[in-house]
Design brief:
- This protein is of the alpha+beta class.
- The protein folds into 2 domains: 62 residues; 165 residues, Aminoglycoside phosphotransferase (APH), C-terminal lobe (Aminoglycoside 3'-phosphotransferase, Chain: A, domain 2, Alpha-Beta Complex), CATH 3.90.1200.10.
- Helices cover 39% and strands 13% of the residues.
- The protein contains 6 helices and 9 strands; from the N terminus they run βββαββαββββαααα.
- The strands form 3 sheets. Strands 1-2-3-5-4 form a 5-stranded antiparallel beta sheet, covered by helices on one side. Strands 6-9 form a two-stranded antiparallel sheet.
- The longest helix is centred in the last third of the chain and has 26 residues.
- The termini are far apart.
- It comes from Isoptericola luteus.
- This is Phosphotransferase.
- InterPro entries: Aminoglycoside_PTrfase, Kinase-like_dom_sf.
Amino acid sequence: MSAGDETGGDFTGGNVNEVARVGDTVRRTSGPWTPTIHALLAWVRAQGVQRLPTPLGVDDRGREVLSYLAGETAGWPVPAWVWEPGTAKDAGALLRSWHDATRTFSLTSAVWRMPAHEPAEVICLNDVAPYNMVHDGEQLVGFIDVDMASPGPRAWDLAYLAYRICGWCQDMPAPPAGSSRDARLAHLLDSYGRDAAPSVPDLMRTMRHRLHDLADWTEEHARTTGAHHLLDHAAMYRRDAARLT
């Protein structure tokens, strides 16, 4: 593919953003939050956390430009690598590295797409899940889609990651064979680091709160954009939260 070509596939028609690949870059819908997110990405990468897109500015159509990470993201049906122990290990360790690197990021004049949550311990990705991970068939390459980031507690990200890769999510059911949800969760928290991870009861309470918050946001986004198909997602989040209860 030449640098001037655009391709679709998994790169177009997202639920929140329009995304296109152009050569070795990805072009995405930008907004008032884009300068903050690009500064954040540059900051975290400068701290040594490299498994993230490189921010490359804005193109002549006003889209943000990011480097392309080669590999597969998890769609449906869910690929087998999502449930491999190495994925939870890599994801937990990378999320810890991201969180630790963001602690010293200046919040002065920052503009966020998503609301902050207290306590603002770190900058949360807010959407860390297999569909925002890139995997090369052997290991996790990195995280993508950072534009939803905003300040919040570590548990806010860990709860959603656990929801998606430990088997609680209705549209990402874990295979019947293999480890249990609790065992997957323990593996994830171990890889993140128990010294900074919340307790399991605290994380489960956060997961319920997180799902209701996400359902509220999704319903409002569907109302303001006309993307009414997202209401099905909101209903799923509420059903999953009820099952947790």
